[in-house]
Every structure is written in structure tokens, then in C-alpha cells.
Amino acid sequence: MLQPPTGTRDFYPAEYNRLRYVTETWRAVSVRHGFEQIDGPTFEHLDLYKIKSGDGIVSELFSFERFGGEKTYALRPEFTPTLARMYAARAGALPKPTRWFCTPTFFRAERPQRGRLREFSQWNCDILGDDSPQADAEIIACAVEALRALGLTSEHVKVRISHRAAVEQALVKRGVEPAQLPRWFTLLDRVGKISNDAFIDEAMKLGMSSAMSLQLISMMTQATTFEEPTTQVMLGEETTGTGPAYFKALFAALEEQGVADWCLLNLGIVRGLAYYTGMVFEIHEAQGALRAIAGGGRYDKLIELFGGPPTPAVGFGMGDVVLSLVMEDKGVMPTDAVIAERLGLRPDAVVISNGTPEADAALPRVLSALRRGNLHARRSGKATKNIGKLLQDAARMNARYCVILESGSLATLKDMATGAQSQVPLGEVVARIARR
RNA sequence: GUGGCUGUAGCUCAGUUGGUUAGAGCGCGAGGUUGUGAUCCUUGAGGUCGCGGGUUCGAGUCCCGUCAGCCACCCCA
Predict the structure, then answer these.
(1) The nucleotide closest to A61 (CA, C1' atoms)
(2) A13 CA, B27 C1': separation in Å?
(3) CA atom of A3 to C1′ atom of B53, Å
(4) Separation of A172 CA and B6 C1' (Å)
(5) Are A270 and A189 in contact (CB under 8 A)?
(6) Are strands A157-163 and A105-107 parallel, antiparallel or unpaired?
(7) Tell me, in Å, how far CA of A339 is from C1' of B10?
(8) Which of A131, A206, A295, A410 makes a 20 to 30 Å CA pair with A278?
(9) Residue A80: which nucleotide is closest by CA–C1'?
């Protein structure tokens, strides 16, 4: 049997509904938070992705040339370059701030694993043209509210927040030269993955004492709430100037938006490469299982890099794969029937015949009258004339009503939830089932 | 991309030290009984045992390769 390509998924109806449940929740939450939906091409010029990520990105992409063509394209592995390109092209005409979201599919040529596929859906939410801590908090709150809407709680998942300036400050304070900072960020990203001894070895090669390194490890691995004294001490000690003031404002805004209890300060969240300029965050399962559900932060230099005007920006991405796994692990993924109902897919009526020629003849007419009346109407695909089995089929379809045709003019209308039945002339069936 | 584990029906799994036409439950289809979602009875379809080689008189079972899934690296935009 032919298999789908590595790391891709077939979506049969139940799986497709689960995906839609997630993506439609993303969309609804985005709209409620004042974001407008956009989209771009599924593939871009390969060079677009080198601008932000360098040549090293190429091996992670699905890139291709058209037969006989000369240009090299790549399936989109992320949205930010497209967003930056689109924003830069019309920056002068766009409102400040601009709030955009999208929920498309992306493609990465990585080796698949649990929670990591080669094709996935990802929600992106960005605020462009607003450099305030309130904007940072709104971005975090929007991500959290989607998780809340999907049934997750602050017990299930945690937002871990860091700030590049705070981490840089901590490094500089321990004698690190600014030119060495990129190498340090790479090393800090490995805290927890390599042993403390291995970390200290590497740190000593970069010229830091083991005592200082231990302090650093401790700071990077602590995840504390904002109220905790250690947090205040850490922020007071490790950051200067706007640092403590920034976090105070951020936390106040998170508090105002009712998501502060989901959030922790964890300076160990470095978020890989260098285009983040300020606050960075990741959302993880509370015990640290799986990969990040979402990640994002502030990238104030990126729009310029893509040829636009200087524009502060903050945003995040949230993929469907890890999120769905966490929802299933936490038992908050609704049943197929509940999802179908929430998506508006529950049949209003299933029409069945009692097997007489008159009723059989009336069935198609009743069915199409219901459909013309803007109702979701089905018939059973079963060949049997057994009323019990046909009702069972209607129950399986989770229909609101079953219309049992008794003759060419009369039907029994059964409310499938209550079991209540009544006799109804065929001409009144649509009106009786119509929702008010 | 590197290394390891796994692979029997749509799903969950049986399948003796290699031995006849590879099984079960659920699900799916058809029929029967009861004019009401249940129960029960009968019955059908669906597998070249992931795929391809090899060893053997004989391979679902052993070996190699390959593909896919999972795990650890890597990466995480």
C-alpha cells in the first residue's frame, strides 16, 4: 500500500474536524483580540528565507526549481519572512499598530518525531508598530486565551518568559565581552541538555570561572512567579535601566489581562537565534513534556532587515501538532460528536421511510425541502427497512431529529434527545425543525 | 542528517523451537426477529504478514536492504 510522504498526515473526517476545532478556535480568539487575518504564498523565493536565517536554513527547507525554470523556490517553513515582506511593502499605508494573524500550513524538511512533523498548521499572531510592554502582554494573553478556550488551564501549561537584555546584562556583569554574546546564547540554550560539568567546561573555555558559571546555571534553570522575592532580586540585580521597570510593566499588564497566573519568569528561555531583541517566551506543558506548544517574542529590527521602515514588532507561533498532543494527554480534547456539533456539523434531521411505496416516494422531496430550508438533512445509507436500525443510524449521526415518513402526507417527528414523538403533516416538517 | 527500537485486517492484538488454505474482538456491509435508538441470531467483505531480496524442502517467524513510525541527538524559524 502506498504511504503518505514522511512526516505528513492524512486527515479523515474525524481528524480533520479535530484540526478545524483547533484552527477555528485560533481564528475566533484572534478576531476577539482585534487581529485581522492575512495569508501569503505557500512558497516563496528561497532567498527570502536566507535573509533572516542565513544559508544554513537551506537544508531544513523543501526547495525546488520549476522544470525548465531558473528561479529557486522553497515551501514556506515559517510565516515571519512573508509577514515582514508584506508589511514592508505597504508600511506607509498601514495603521500603527497593525495586528495580523494567520493559520496556514508550513513545511520543514526535518526528521519527524512525536510532536514534530514535516507539514503542520501554525497560528501566527503579530503586533507591528507598538513597542510597549502592553503589546508584549497582549500577545502573550492572546496565546493563553486560545489555550483556555481549548480547555487547558494554568495547571496544564506554563508560559515561560525571558528577556534578551536581562540575560545579556547577567553575562556582561560576569565579564563577558559584548562581541562574545552570540556564542554565549548558543551555550545558554544548552543548559539542562548537557550536564552542569560540561556546561562549566565550556564556560571556562569562554573565560568564566566555575563559581560564576554555577550562578548562571542556577539563574537559567529557575522558573519563578513574578511575586516571588527571588524574581525581584534577580531582576534587580541582573538588569539595569529599563529592565526592572519593563518587567514591572509587563507583569502589571499580564495581571490586568488575567493571565499572570499562567506565567513564569525563566531567563533560560533563550529562543535560539538572534533576531529576537527583547522579551521572549515559550509555552510548554507544565512538566516540560514534549516540545514547546508556542514560542515568540519581540523582534524590533526584522522589518528593517526586509527593507521596511524601522518598526517594532512582537508575535508568536503556535503549532497544531504539540498542542493537540497536550490536549489529548490532558484529556481536554472533546469527543468527535462534541467537536462536530461545535463546528456546526450536527445534522438537524435524518429522514427515514417506513418502507411503504408512498413514504419511499416522499423521502427525496422531504429531504430536499429541508435542505432548501437551510437545514442539514440526511438520509440513512442503510438498505434495511427496519425502523430500529434506521433510528440507530440516525443516532449514530447525532441528528437532532428523525423524520419517520408514515405515508405520502404524514410523518412522525422524533426528537432524538428527549425521545418525544409527534405526528406532523409533511408540509409542516421544515417549520417544526427550523431553529429559531 | 547520525544512532537505536518497532512494523500481522480500518482499530486493538493472537500466531508454539521455521511446518498445510494466517486468526479473534471491535468496526464496516448484507439478511432475520422485535414499528423505535437496546439485546439477540445468521452471514459477507477486507491481509501478496510494510516493501524487496536472501537462507531453507518450507519464512509472518531467521538474515540483509529499503520504506514508515517511535526514541535520543540535531534543529526548533
Answers:
(1) B77
(2) 16
(3) 21
(4) 49
(5) yes
(6) unpaired
(7) 22
(8) A206
(9) B77
What's the Å distance between residue A336 CA and nucleotide B77 C1'?
33
Q: Kindly list the distances between the CA atom of residue A357 and the CA atoms of A127, A405, A423, in Å, as whole numbers in the listed order.
A: 64, 11, 19
User: Per residue in A8-36, pLDDT tens?
Assistant: 888 888 888 999 999 999 999 999 999 99
Please name the residue that has the C-alpha cell 531544513.
A60
Chain B: bases < 7 Å from a protein Cβ: 1-3, 28-39, 48, 50, 67-77
pLDDT at residue A76, as a whole number: 94
Under the banding of pLDDT at 50, 70 and 90, the label for residue A236 is low
Q: Give yes or no for a cis peptide into A97 (omega within 30° of 0).
A: yes
Q: Is residue A321 predicted with pLDDT exceeding 80?
A: yes
Which ipTM did the prediction report? 0.82
Task: Pull the grid cell for residue A260.
Answer: 499572570
Flag whether pLDDT at A145 surpasses 90.
yes
Q: Where are the alpha helices (DSSP H) in A315-407?
A: 320-329, 336-342, 357-372, 387-396
